[in-house]
Amino acid sequence: MVTVVLIAPYTGVVPRGDGRLTHEIDPQDVGPQDACGVFGVWAPGEEVAKLTYFGLYALQHRGQESAGIAVSNERQILVYKDMGLVSQVFDESTLESLTGSLAIGHARYSTTGSSVWQNAQPTFRPTAHGSVALAHNGNLTNTHDLSRTVQERTAENGGDSGRGESATTDTAVMATLLSSYQDRSVEEAALEVLPQLRGAFSLVFMDETTLYGARDPQGIRPLVLGRLHSGWVLASETAALDIVGASYIREIEPGEFVAIDENGLRSEKFADPAPKGCLFEYVYLARPDTTINDQRVFSVRSEIGRRLARQNPVDADLVIPVPESGTPAAIGYAEESGIPFGQGSRGKGSGALPPGPRPARAPDRTDVPGQCAQGIRWNTAPCQ
User: Fold this and answer.
1) Is 107 helix (H, G, I), strand (E, B) or coil?
2) What residues act catalytically?
3) Which CATH number, 3.40.50.700, 3.40.50.300, 3.60.20.10, 3.40.30.10, labels domain 37-282?
4) H or E stretch including 305?
5) pTM score above 0.90
């Protein structure tokens, strides 16, 4: 009889937002739902849509419901988005048609709002002087308060609080609020809006000529800055910088706002930083080849496994990671304990579930083909 140690991330109790979360997958097991991927590039003369495509491809593990890219040719912004994976939404002909000097992109895993096309990002809004497109990773906790602010401002302006796309997300509220300042530029409006936001947010957004980025004062969701030979990149993870050939410069600091245009990079603090970070980035959400706080995620997860082996030794024959994001921790556990490492069934893509219903019944451990014939005990439970 063989005993197997399953190494899986602890999911515990996750604090929720303001009551508008999407729980369609399973109301009894909602899990973390704010792991979207965002990417932005300012690089005149480069194929910015293709760079954004590859950046999103590297961030696909963070969201598999929808994908979108917004591109500006310095005169107008064009947004293309749809439901599905990055490789399903975009093809060569679509990318060829998205020309410009700056772009942002988004891969979505829904937090607020339904999993429908209207809630796919980037979110677009017209402004008094042009337009703005916004991509958001995180979850605001004061969406209802912001919605009231939007209604008040649009009433004062004689407009419609639902201007632009029909959407039900906190991202839509932010975009509408940014567009409501008729006497200010997007940059000036952002410095008014950002201090009003509460919760987790890493933002990339743009007007016709400028790329913007912002990170919440706690730094809950990641955002990094990279340098191309001919421009700049903002992304959720350093892995997205690597795939487009950008050099890692630094993380966007908690409470920091950056603007990038032909005049270079400008940075301002919109709130006092109070760094908290997010444990889930280290143990589950981020790619193992990503660097957070100057630490490679793979190394952090391996050390977690080593410490687990020292603190909770077991008598077992094999260490197997479940899900695949647990592989580095399982390797660390195996190295520290001396128990052999083994691969179980390999998943496809992200550990985050795609939208849609789950099976009516989760398979029993004994449903795994051939496992009982091999005499394997899962979690020390005997095969029947």
Assistant:
1) strand
2) 36
3) 3.60.20.10
4) helix 297-311
5) no
